[in-house]
């Protein structure tokens, strides 16, 4: 299967190596950063130095490929998906942006190729888990999805280090959040809905952020009483972000905030990804609750270290592509994450990355 992989950043490089190593994919990595591409080229992976904002040049690279795997920033998702359709390619991406996903869904209408956005961690894997648990109930009451990509050793006031795209981070902090409350679709404010809980003896907070639900609100409309998604952080992070975004007005100047964070907040490869899903409802006449909990840790291999967010994000999209190639997903039109069967995902050679876990000690 011939793959055009857009983006040679940390996530893109991980995706490229995973797919290339199988021998089942002919991967060409496309980016404008010659330095990043050189690293992959030295490993025997095909590359093409192209300005991804130049539509003509990019389209020339996509023609003849079977699929486009987009690991570019979220604001380029619609452009990439549009070119994929024009070139007759299947399309997969990692976007958390609600507007981009809706636009891609429209592009998929009547298409002979497949469009599967949101193939990362959240949205992505978290929706696969929630749907799998919920469909086992006769009547679903509450679906709660909580995900955090966190530094293993927080040292600053925000108790946070950059573990993934700053663009994506600020985007999810600033846009309205979809949810179902009392059986009705609602649009909730980001950074609201603060709650606290303990997992493995560590204290966390969670609050509303945009995009993590993917298409679940639409899928479960009229079938669930409450459904929501919240991002997990260490206590105190939410209040400081509200101060920056609201009190200092940086929500209206997001580029300035991104610049500040890039210059003052170190990135880290020592992180942990937390996945926590609870579903409650009626089963065989009894009110029950099912829980799925995972902690995925960074791989500290000195030769090729991988952060937890690299592992989980790359595993999500690679598993989606792999399951598609095996014919386990629809072969055209718009594909929702919840169309992926959780057992098949976890059994997949890439999806196995999510098997890491630790026992839950307490939740409350």
Question: What report would you give on this structure?
Answer:
- This protein is an alpha/beta fold.
- The chain has helices at 10-22, 34-41, 55-62, 77-86, 98-108, 125-134, 166-174, 216-219, 237-247, 254-264, 308-325, 342-347; strands spanning 2-6, 26-31, 46-49, 67-70, 90-93, 114-116, 139-151, 177-181, 184-188, 195-199, 202-208, 224-233, 271-283, 286-297, 333-334.
- The strands form 3 sheets. The protein has a 7-stranded parallel sheet with strand order 3-2-1-4-5-6-15, with helices on both faces. Strands 10-11-12-7-13-14 form a 6-stranded mixed sheet, with helices on one face. Strands 8-9 form a two-stranded antiparallel ribbon.
- Helix 2 (34-41) links the parallel strand 2 (26-31) and strand 3 (46-49).
- 48% of the residues are buried.
- Mean pLDDT is 94; it is low at 358-364.
């Amino acid at each position: 299967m011939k793959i055009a992989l857009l983006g040679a950043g940390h996530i893109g490089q991980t995706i490229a190596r995973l797919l290339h190593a199988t021998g089942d994919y002919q991967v060409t990595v496309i980016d404008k950063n010659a330095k990043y591409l050189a690293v992959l080229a030295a490993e025997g992976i095909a590359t093409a130095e192209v300005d991804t904002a130049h539509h003509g040049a990019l389209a020339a690279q996509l023609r003849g490929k079977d699929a486009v795997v987009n690991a570019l920033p979220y604001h380029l998702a619609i452009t990439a998906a549009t070119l994929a359709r024009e070139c007759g390619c299947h399309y997969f991406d990692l976007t958390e942006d609600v507007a981009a996903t809706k636009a891609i869904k429209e592009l998929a209408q009547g298409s002979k190729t497949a469009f599967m956005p949101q193939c990362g961690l959240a949205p992505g894997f978290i929706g696969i888990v929630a749907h799998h648990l919920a469909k086992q109930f006769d009547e679903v009451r509450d679906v709660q999805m909580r995900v955090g990509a966190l530094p293993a050793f927080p040292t600053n006031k925000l108790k946070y280090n950059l573990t993934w795209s700053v663009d994506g981070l600020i985007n999810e902090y600033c846009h309205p959040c979809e949810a179902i409350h009392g059986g009705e679709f609602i649009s909730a404010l980001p950074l609201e809905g603060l709650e606290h809980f303990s997992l493995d003896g560590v204290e966390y907070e969670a609050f509303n952020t945009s995009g993590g639900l993917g298409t679940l609100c639409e899928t479960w409309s009229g079938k669930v009483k409450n459904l929501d998604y919240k991002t997990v952080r260490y206590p105190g992070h939410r209040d400081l972000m509200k101060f920056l975004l609201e009190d200092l007005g940086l929500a209206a100047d997001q580029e300035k905030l991104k610049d500040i964070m890039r210059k003052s907040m170190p990135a880290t490869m020592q992180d942990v990804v937390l996945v926590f899903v609870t579903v409650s409802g009626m089963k065989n006449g009894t009110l029950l609750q099912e829980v799925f909990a995972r902690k995925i840790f960074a791989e500290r291999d000195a030769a090729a270290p991988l952060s937890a967010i690299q592992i989980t994000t790359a595993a999500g999209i690679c598993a989606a592509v792999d399951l598609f190639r095996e014919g386990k997903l629809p072969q055209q039109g718009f594909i929702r994450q919840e169309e992926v069967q959780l057992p098949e995902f976890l059994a997949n050679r890439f999806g196995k990355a999510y098997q890491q876990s630790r026992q839950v000690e307490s939740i409350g």
